[in-house]
Amino acid sequence: MSFISYIRTAIHVYREISIQKKFNNSFLIPYLDELEKKYNGKFQPEQRGKIINYYGLFITSFLCSSYKRLYGKTLSDDERKRATLFGILTPVGDDLFDIDKLPHESIKEITFHPENFNAEGFSSHVAKEIQSFLLAN
User: Fold this and answer.
1) Global pTM value
2) CB neighbours of residue 79 within 10 Å
3) How would you write the pLDDT of the chain (137 residues) with one tens digit per residue?
């Protein structure tokens, strides 16, 4: 890789991270707050930190925008929102599957038919809302 290509790539990554940080401040953080109020629960501090600083930041800015760049396009606002929502769904889903030990049938239901899923508890309500949105849009 030439030095100029390296610099261009570094600049692009820096720009993407900056764009996603702004998006996280304007959408992700207020949405996390809204979910906590709506479902009367709290994201664990470590989980919230991972959502904001890892899943909701680097997955969107590195993976999704890089794939779009391969096709000569930029990530749209709707695509950015969807990718960011996956950033919430990833650790919440981990909790449902690993900690709450959701049964196989419930996993299938929340994955393919979240509208039929009987949510109990904060994580399941959050997962149901996000998965419903992602499937509908």
Assistant:
1) 0.86
2) 16
3) 588 888 887 887 888 888 889 999 999 999 999 999 999 999 999 999 989 988 888 877 678 888 888 888 888 889 989 989 988 888 888 888 877 788 888 888 989 999 999 988 899 999 999 999 999 87
